[in-house]
Amino acid sequence: MRVFIRFWITKENKNFLGKGKVELLEHIKATGSISKAAKNMQMSYKAAWDSIDMMNHLSVGAMVESVSGGKGGGGTKLTAQGERAIVVFKKLERVIAQIEGAMCASEDFDSLEQKIILLEKQLTNLS
């Protein structure tokens, strides 16, 4: 059996952070530009800007900020909050992948259920 888990983080009933938004942050970090990041992802500048604006407003501190002037002109960079969001999301992604892997080793619903019960017990201990 194969088990697939999709996840994202919501805040104030809005999709705050997910795979696509993290990818957008990573492209901004690599290119220093919202425009280039959007182009790399084959999305419109407006869609990229709207995502960034929403993340900035929902986050405790801005995740992306403008950089003005300089020799090459202005640009965009991630803040410490933006960098932290990527790190934490990637860690959660690895944990989810481990859960998927453990569940995929199931041959039938009985074995899958036993793994779920074991996982529930372990998670209860974390609370």
General description of the model:
This protein has 127 residues and is mostly helical. It is elongated and about 60 Å long. Strand 3 and strand 4 form a beta hairpin. It has 5 helices and 4 strands; from the N terminus they run ββαααββαα. The model has no long low-confidence stretch (mean pLDDT 93). It is 61% helix and 12% strand. The strands form 2 sheets. Strands 1-2 form a two-stranded antiparallel ribbon. It has helices spanning 19-31, 34-40, 45-58, 80-104, 109-126; strands spanning 9-11, 14-17, 64-67, 75-78.
Relevant terms:
127 residues; mainly alpha; two-stranded antiparallel sheet; 5 helices; 61% helix; 12% strand; elongated
| Proportion of strand residues | 5-15%
Please report the total strand number as a whole number: 4
Distance between the termini: 29 Å
Task: Give the helix level as a range of percent.
Answer: 55-70%
Q: Could you name the ranges where pLDDT drops below 50 across 5 or more consecutive residues?
A: none
Q: What is the topology, as strand order, of the major beta sheet?
A: 1-2
**Number of H- or I-type helical stretches:** 5
User: What is the approximate shape?
Assistant: elongated
Decide which structural class fits the backbone: mainly alpha
Task: Reconstruct the topology from this structure.
Blueprint: E1 9-11, E2 14-17, H1 19-31, H2 34-40, H3 45-58, E3 64-67, E4 75-78, H4 80-104, H5 109-126
Antiparallel strand pairs: 1-2, 3-4
